[in-house]
Amino acid sequence: MIERNEVKKLAELARIKLSDTEVENIRKDIDSILAFVSQIDSVSTSNTSPSYTNLKNVMREDGKPHETGLFSKELLGGVPERDGDYVKVKKIL
Amino acid sequence: MTTPEDKTIVQLNKDLTDRKISAAELARGYLENIQKDDKDFNAYLEVYDDVIEQAERADIAIENGYVSPLTGIPIAVKDNILVHGKRASAGSKILENYVASYDATVVEKLKQNRSVFLGRTNQDEFAMGSSTENSAYGVTKNPHDTARVPGGSSGGSAASVAYRGALAALGSDTGGSVRQPASFCGVVGLKPTYGAVSRHGLIALGSSLDQIGTFTNSVVDCELLYSAISGHDGLDSTSSEGHSPKKNKIKVGVPRHFLAEGVDEDVMSNFEKSLRVLEGKGYQVRDMELPTVKHALAAYYVILPAEASTNLARYDGVRYGLHKGGSDVIDDYFESRGEGFGKEVRRRILLGTYVLSAGYYDSYYAKAIDVRNVISAEYELAYESVDVIMTPTTATPAFKIGEKTDPVSMYLSDLFTVPQNITGMPALSIPYGVAEREGKSLPLGVQVTGPNWSEETLFQVGKDIMNES
């Protein structure tokens, strides 16, 4: 059983604002989903290589870089708040 | 308009090269259909304003003899696939005004073919859903019965092909999001082998599960579109390439134990009929067991939220997308993400955060990965004695809008489609038969799946079921 405080903590970790009603609704939903997924406990997994996935990350070789500024205008076009060619955020320190 | 919609892409390609029809005329026909019918179904979020220009460019290419199989073919694109200079919102408010700064690899490949992009189609927000009811831009309706859902998450793409608003469409399939709506809307839906189609330019949901797939009216069209969009791509680190030749004398396995409960009677008898059709064509059909497959959905609802919560961490309201100001820089995140994400998305992000957090990681996430490996091993073993495995695509025909209110009952509609994402195997949903409900004929689908890279064999089974030559 997941507690309201745990849901609040998760929302804080995930940086999502929730109202009090939502905390309770999501708590109930997560509870029923966890009850459903807990059936995986009944599967014997002792014969599998533990937590192994055969996916591996493949990094691209550093090739020739593109010309500086080639995409800047377009990418900056999507920035919600900017100051010239800078992405603007509130004071951090 | 003459009825080019009843023709396959191959036939239309011939008509285009023979100059019986121009790409512009073809595009106009589809724009008319959209204009006339889309208000009833809400399949499109946006119809592009340069469709005729694209078609005219295709016509110039045809005049100059530069014709490939998909030149001038009108295609719809799911809202989570990037088309340079066009909006791509993934059905979410958080990306409402996001304009793609590059082409997805699949789009680039189709542009090289001079295909014509009609517009972007509705979907569940970030592809989280099985009904398209979770879109921030209204629900899409099933063209066969507007009181019912088209399935999801690629519901707009499925509906657009079903009501002749597009000749073909692209979607994405993370747990059935191409195959389930294809089945509900009566069209062919393919989820290719994981890695077969580049996901570069697909807005990520669950990166170990996501795959771009296709909607078409026929299996031959599906085959053609698949061959155009597949292939290795250095821009997708999980891209791969493979091929396995078409089988003759195909042996079909049916995991009847998995179908024993919860499958609608009409769906089951229709499925049996499809097996009889195959037996009539020389296929062997036999029962088989996949002991752990019933737990695939549970493993999926641990793995998927975990990956989704990670992927969706990028929406911070700083670099692109919705920005809502708060009291400080951290509060900006809370405000932007609180406002931009819908209910199901928030639910899955929190669930994903939970299963990945210290103290729960081993009992949920690590355990789910182990279950995933057990299921994959069972399928591999099964393919030693059968070539393909068949089930109905879904346990029921399309359900009603608003019918499924709790998340778990919605999740259960993907019971038969999730295992292929868990294992990476390709799967094809083939429209076959109908179920009569309240005076409406609702399409049904059967799903055929095989080992990685067995697409050609799946196409053969599909053609045999649909009586395509």
Describe the structure.
The complex is a heterodimer of chains A (93) and B (469). With 93 residues, chain A is mainly alpha-helical. Chain A contains three helices and two strands; from the N terminus they run αααββ. Chain A has helices at residues 4-13, 20-37, 72-76, and strands at residues 82-83, 86-87. A two-stranded antiparallel sheet of chain A has the order 1-2. In chain A, β1 (82-83) and β2 (86-87) form a beta hairpin. The longest helix of chain A has 18 residues, at 20-37. With 469 residues, chain B is α/β, with parallel strands linked by helices. In chain B, 38% of the residues lie in helices and 14% in strands. In chain B, β10 (427-437) and β11 (440-449) form a beta hairpin. The longest helix of chain B is centred in the last third of the chain and has 21 residues, at 362-382. The mean pLDDT of chain B is 96. The chains are: A mainly alpha (93), B alpha/beta (469). Chains A and B meet through α1 and α2 of A and α9, α10, α11, α12 and α13 of B.
